[in-house]
Amino acid sequence: MARLRVRFGSAVAMLAAVLGYAAAFSSVFVSPSAAAEEKVYLHQDWRLASSCDAKATGEQVSAVGFDVSKWHRTNLPNTAVGALVDDGTYKDPMMGKNLKSLPGMDYSTKHFFAIQDMPKDSPFICSWWWRTEFVAPADFAGKVQWLHLLGINYRANVWVNGKKVADEKDVAGTFVTFEFNVSKYLVPGKGNAIALEIFAPLKNDLGITWVDWNPTPADKDMGIWKEVFLTADDGVSLRNPYVTSKLENDYKAAALTVSADLRNTSDKAVDGVLAAEVEGGIHIKQDVKLAAGETKTITFNADKFSELKLAHPRLWWPYQMGDPNLYKAKLTFETGGHVSDSADVTFGIREATSELTDKGYRLFKINGKKVLIRGAAWAPDMFLRYSPERVDADLAYVRDMGLNTVRLEGRIDHEDFFNKADKLGILIMPGWTCCDAWERWKGWKEEHHKIAGESLKSQIRILRNHPSVFVWLYGSDGPPPADVEKMYLGILKDLDWPNPSLSSASADPTTVTGASGVKMTGPYEYVPPMYWFADTQAGGAYGYNTETSPGPAIPPKESLERFIPKDHLWPIDEVWNFHSGGERFTTVNVFTDGLSKRYGAPTSLDDYERKAQAMTYDGQRAMFEAYGRNKYTSTGVIQWMLNNAWPSLIWHLYDYYMVPAGGYYGTKKSTELVHVQYSYDDNSVAVVNGKYEEIKGAKVSAKIYNIDAKEKGSKDATIDLAADSATKAFELPKVDDLSKTYFLKLQLHDAHGKLLSDNFYWLSTKPDTMDWKHRKDTVYTPQAEFADLTGLNSLPAAKIIISKQSLGKKNGENWMSLTIENKGDGVAFMIHPRVTRGKGGEDVTPIFWTDNYFSLLPGEQATVRARYDDRALAGKEPVLEIEGYNVEPGTVAVGEFTAVQDDTP
User: Of 866, 811, 797, whose CA–CA distance to 836 is shortest?
Assistant: First the structure.
């Protein structure tokens, strides 16, 4: 692609560092489980070393002053390999094939390392010591002191000040949260030491598996991947505050139930008062008696406490359906005239339900309204280095693309993630992972059942307060056997889980709960746009597809250069393949073959890139459009995936470096709340109304153009759009003498002439067809014939200008606006503006364009706007670049940008 650069000047401040995982190291994570001021986080200045190198006992390692000067330094969260990468011990594992050369790395694309034994010479067969020193708060004196470990992978011996607190036999499970009474060991007001001897998960452990998404690191992500903190109380601990709601009177009223677990750690009975204060002026309390050592769940319900009956509550809604309103509550336990412990909790008042349609498909409703699930699956960093800033960007991208859901398959990360989703009104679909011990039930021993149960209890206690979480999947690629399923269901019932649960992400029924109502039929490999409309047996637009994708997503050239060495950038070779997937997704050959046959064989990396972005845009758009048009025969679709845990060529909507490309903007176009679209199966035009109100007198127009941009046909219609509907407007007219590659321009206006939606397609008189007879499974369906889109290669060089441009700042965020006009006689195809950190620098990310990879007919113009934060500039001067399928250097005339302060474009 050709490009042109424009300097913005100094209109925006140059602040902060580039967004990245390293930002996590200085962060403080606050859980709503307890008041923030009561938590003392121990995330800074940890040291780690292999126990095979550090020849010392736990008593010695956990003693204050133990010499760790030669140990590796890190902050939490991190894994052993992650820490060694961060401190430079290991070379950048993201570049080229470096990862393969890391000690202990058993990389094979033919099996999952997570379910294999570590190599005998691996440095991670040994346990690793993780150690830190700190001063415990002086006001902890005389109180019961607790050490909280929310995520250890996988087993650990826990030591404090030379004393062993817990054994690896008891501290086991990636998703189990632990807390220990360390009152006998900590010294308030003075220096203390904590040492964890951590053991990597074995092949049969219930750990974290990367499956075929990306390689599993050499340590199998051994380390501390969630929060570590201290709390103190006066003998009665308050845990697991919970507020649930029952909506009544056609969702105009709500009855709340408030509860918490109280634990008396003393050897004497305690009398006290549990008080609850709920936002809105609600104050309630009840007397409590606790026997020595007793733990009891105390509940306030609306039948006894009428204050918990609310009229006209502010409901929590997914952001496209309403406001994601949240409430706060505070619970306090007092005894002997003073507060022993307290906790804050944030919650939403809403109802999530599901049902099977008459066709047997799972349909979800929020507050009684149907919702078409359109989402993508999120992945954390490969070394589990949590970054709040990165998650902010991930979730902002989700909303910017118009998606409403994020799926978490076994990546149930920090509670901060769910807090953010609650505030943003994004639905979350968590559950266990596939393809490892989590689904090898036949080999489970007593310990597996125990850890699985404790894992579920730990996670449900956290997730049940979050209105963003609307379902729980206790199986992934298949459902568990009856005994395990009953165990899971019993835990969900005991913990008053307020949402639906599913036995798996697949269609396999169980003898306990019957049909799941969802499917996991792929595809995961490239298919042409028409597939999603034509397929009725696998991944096509019917039912609820829990994971699927049109295949690879090639990052832009500038991103490729950050992880593929220059001498391997072109042609595609084994380094590219190394950054594809695992198992049967080890190359991008199917995608590239489809590209070559549809767009013409690529002659260079630049040529490959422009064709890949066009094909990915088209593929992602078609997938989401098909599911949108078919609602509620289709009830949900989850793109596999949203993002990548490392630099990858497959399965993402934006790349590892947060750069949005063709697939991102194809998705953004397809999920417009009110959207006009083309139907590949019957050559028609449809309109999807995602609003919950009707639109009368909408005007639909379609124009067909030859490759030379000459209009060849058109059709118009005025239609009424029912609320939350999909409506067929008309079939396109038959047009004679069309070029093999041609264009379709769609527009939708309201009754007053306001543009609601537009769409631009490149099509062929030679259609794509599928070779259904030779489909071996649902993962991939071969093509029989390929559309001829090679006419795009004959497009004349575009003649575009920027006729208007301005930039400014609002609420600390930079914005830029530019109007681009096509002054040529041909189509300006796939115009792509981007902002870089200095001339020739990396992309400014995260960045939010109103539109991108757009096309202009002769004489047309479009105004696009971008938003980005100062931090995204990394202290560099911003530079605008414009490129496109047929945009050549020097064809864009640009004047000075007009600075507008404290205003919006």
Answer: 866
What 3 state SS string does 370-408 have? EECEEEEECCCCCCCCCCHHHHHHHHHHHHHCCCCEEEE
Return the C-alpha torsion angle 407, 413, 419, 420, nearest 10: -60
**Residue 822 contacts residue 828 (beta carbons within 8 Å):** yes
What is the C-alpha to C-alpha distance for residues 421 and 428, in angstroms, rounded to an integer? 8
User: Dihedral angle at the C-alpha atoms of 366, 350, 297, 33, nearest 10 degrees?
Assistant: 100
* Contact between residue 265 and residue 301 where contact means Cβ atoms under 8 Å apart: no
Q: E strands, 348-483, where? A: 352-356, 362-366, 369-371, 373-377, 405-409, 427-431, 472-473
Let me know how long the chain is: 905
Can the peptide bond before residue 479 be classed as cis, meaning omega within 30 degrees of 0? no
Confidence of residue 804 (pLDDT cuts 50, 70, 90): confident
Q: Is 683 helix (H, G, I), strand (E, B) or coil?
A: coil
Alpha helices in 55-144, H assignment, sequence order: 58-61, 80-86
**Residue 254 structure tokens:** 């709500």
Structure tokens that stand for 246 in this block: 């029952």
Q: What is the mean pLDDT of residues 379-404?
A: 97
Strand 634-639 to 543-548 pairing: parallel
Beta-ladder partners of 324 = 316
- What's the pLDDT band for 31 if we cut at 50, 70, 90? very low
Model confidence band, residue 427 (pLDDT cutoffs 50, 70, 90): very high
In contact, 71 and 54? CB cutoff 8 Å: yes
Tokens 């001063």 map to which residue?
135
Catalytic-labelled residue, pool 547, 672, 843, 881: 547
Is 877 a residue whose pLDDT tops 90? no
Q: How many CB atoms lie within 10 A of CB 546?
A: 30
At residue 634, the 3 state secondary structure works out as strand
Mark 113-141 as b/e (b = at least 16 C-beta within 10 Å).
bbbeebeeebbbbbbbbbbbbbebeeebe
The CA distance from 748 to 690, in Å, is 14
C-alpha pair distances (Å), 869 with each of 255, 806, 816, 842, 897: 42, 16, 12, 15, 18
The span from the CA of 26 to the CA of 118, in Å, is 32
Distance CA 58, CA 69 (A): 17
Alpha carbon separation from 287 to 61, 268, 299 (Å, rounded): 46, 17, 11
Under DSSP, the state recorded for 349 is B
168-172, 180-184, 900-904: least confidently modelled range = 900-904
Sign of the four-CA dihedral 792, 795, 801, 804: negative
Q: Please give the structure tokens belonging to residue 424.
A: 């943003």
What phi and psi values does residue 552 have, to the nearest 5 degrees? -55, 155
- State how far the Cα of 647 lies from the Cα of 385, in Å rounded to an integer: 15
DSSP symbols for 5-63: EEE--SSS---SPPPSGGGGGG-----TTS-GGG-EE--SSEEEEETTTS---HHHHTS
Look up 609 and say whether it is catalytic. no
Distance in angstroms between the alpha carbons of the first and the last residue of the chain? 29
* 3-state secondary structure (DSSP) of residue 517: coil
pLDDT tens-digit readout, 93-102: 999 999 999 9
CA-based nearest residue to 627, from 566, 702, 688: 688
- What pLDDT digit, counting tens, does each position of 647-704 carry? 999 999 999 999 999 999 999 999 999 999 999 999 999 999 999 999 999 999 999 9
Residues 263 and 238: their CA atoms lie apart, in Å, by 7
Closest C-alpha to 384, from 74, 608, 96, 170? 74
Judge whether 454 counts as a catalytic residue. Answer: no
β-strand pairing of 282-290 with 228-233: unpaired
**Strand pairing class (501-502; 472-473):** parallel
Residue of 477, 485, 881, 883 marked catalytic: 477
